[in-house]
Each structure stands twice: as structure tokens, then as C-alpha cells.
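Lecture notes, part 5. Sequence design as translation. It can be helpful to think of inverse folding as translation between two languages: the language of shapes and the language of residues. The source text, in C-alpha cells, appears below.
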């Protein structure tokens, strides 16, 4: 195998290890965040939280690379982050709470809910959490993985 192929394989392995670490970090962060605020959580929240953390981090990186206006970039991150997390929460809720009847959460008593799995109040919270997600993702990539990203202006 030539040097270029070995280098490409090594880079791919490092990239996937970095993604796995980010996914686990996001999942555990969300799991313990729920424990701090609700006094309980469920392992499915590690899976959903990790996926949200990874995807929102990638969306944020893309937006920060493309958008020159920082205010517009932050608004876009909040919008697409909230949309992503709410969508993943809905799918997770349908599988975990409706199909498997695990009753991990239920927003039926809140206004503007959909099937008791998502609600407007938490979508707004996810918008704010998206900014933290992108910041922590970038911080981990720069400090732990030594991946250089452009400054946040």
C-alpha cells in the first residue's frame, strides 16, 4: 500500500474517532442534563442527544464557514439547530414512547404539542442549546482533536 493510501486511511479513522467522541459527549451531556432538571433520564436520550450534538455541530460549522454576518449566522444556527433537535426528538419519541410504550416523556399537558412528543416551549430551548452545542463542538475539535477552525469572527 502506498503512502498516500495509508495517510488517507489514517485520516478517515481519526475523523470517525473524533465523531464518536463528540457523539458520546453530546449523549452523556444530554442524559445528565435531564437528570439535573428532571431527576431521571433514559438511555435512549444518550442516543438521541449524541446524534443531535453531532448533527447540530456540523450544521453550525457549515453556517459559520458560509455566512459572513455573525448575527445572521447565529440566528441560522438557532433555527436549524432547533429544527434538527425537534425533528430527532419527535422521531425518538414516536419510537420510544408510542411504538415501544416506554413513557420516557410526555408533553401532552403543554400547549402546542405534537402527539405529546414535542412542544413549542422545548423547541425554543433547543434553539438556545444549539448555540452551546456548536460552541462546545468547536472547542473540543480545536483543543482535544487539534482541528483548526476559523475564528468565530
Amino acid at each position: 500500500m502506498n503512502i498516500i493510501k495509508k495517510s488517507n486511511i489514517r485520516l478517515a479513522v481519526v475523523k470517525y474517532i473524533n465523531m464518536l467522541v463528540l457523539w458520546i459527549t453530546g449523549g452523556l451531556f444530554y442524559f445528565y442534563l435531564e437528570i439535573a432538571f428532571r431527576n431521571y433520564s433514559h438511555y435512549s436520550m444518550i442516543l438521541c442527544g449524541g446524534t443531535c450534538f453531532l448533527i447540530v455541530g456540523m450544521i453550525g460549522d457549515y453556517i459559520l464557514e458560509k455566512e459572513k454576518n455573525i448575527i445572521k449566522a447565529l440566528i441560522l444556527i438557532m433555527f436549524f439547530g432547533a429544527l434538527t433537535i425537534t425533528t430527532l426528538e419527535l422521531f425518538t419519541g414516536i419510537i420510544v414512547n408510542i411504538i415501544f410504550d416506554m413513557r420516557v416523556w410526555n408533553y401532552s399537558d403543554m400547549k402546542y404539542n405534537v402527539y405529546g412528543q414535542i412542544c413549542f416551549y422545548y423547541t425554543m430551548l433547543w434553539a438556545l442549546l444549539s448555540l452551546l452545542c456548536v460552541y462546545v463542538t468547536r472547542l473540543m475539535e480545536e483543543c482535544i482533536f487539534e482541528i483548526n477552525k476559523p475564528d468565530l469572527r
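The translated text above is only one of many valid answers, since several sequences can fold into similar shapes. Strands lie at 113-114, 118-119.
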